[in-house]
Amino acid sequence: MLCFDTSFAPLVQKLAPQLQTVKHYLCMCTRATMPQIEIPPGTQLHCWDDLIGNQPDVFAWPEFDERSASSLCYTSGTTGNPKGVLYSHRSTLLHSLMELAPDSFGLSSRETVMLIVPMFHANAWGTPYAAAMAGCRLVLPGPHLDGQSVYTLMRDEKVTFSQGVPTVWLMLFQYLDAHPEIDPRQLGIRRIGIGGAAVPRAMLERFERQFGAEVVQGWGMTETSPIGVISQLLPKHDALPEEERLKIKLKQGRGVWGVDLKLVDDAGQVQPWDGESRGHLRVRGPWIASGYFKGEGGSPIDEEGYFCTGDVATLDADGFLQLVDRAKDVIKSGGEWISSIDVENAAMGHPGVAEAAIIGVAHPKWQERPLLIVVPREGHAVDKASVLDFLSTRIAKWWLPDDVVFVKELPHTATGKLLKTKLREQYRDYRLPGT
Question: Which one is catalytic: 99, 223, 344, 355?
Answer without folding.
Answer: 223
